[in-house]
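Cast an eye over this sequence plus tokens and walk me through the fold:

***
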Amino acid sequence: MAEEKTQGGNSAAAPDGQGQNVSLQTVYVKDLSFEAPKGPFLPAQDQEPKIQLNLNTASTSVATDVHEVVLTVTLEAKSGDVPVYLAEVKQGGVFTVRGFTADETRRILGSFAPNVLFPYVRQTVSDMISKGGFPPFFLPPVNFDALYERSLQERAAQQGTAAAAEPQQVN
């Protein structure tokens, strides 16, 4: 009898008896925006713009055990103070996550799911910039596991600061 392995390598039974399961239902472009105010007609010395890259992930529950994860990539290219282009892609995915604890589910949605979506958003960004008349831009590899851990640490630090700022009651 074959045993089904999941993202964490566990095959333990969930409380409902269905076992642990992570599956991708669909991948889609949720939002797409590209602006090139002056077009690709910049002098040769301006062909090496400074690029600012921002990444963001968000997840929402769609139904029981079904979650939408959106990976947002924003690229802003400037030559000095002159905007060259602004590109934003929101790559969505619907994931079924069943049989995991709440913490495990948050980790799957905050780290594993963005890793699955990243190749799709990388290709979309590159294609969009190329179709705008610019050389393709390939997003560098991203360690979503490290980003997720850092967000947990920042959240814990913020909660610790908030707790320290609250007045203590003495009985």
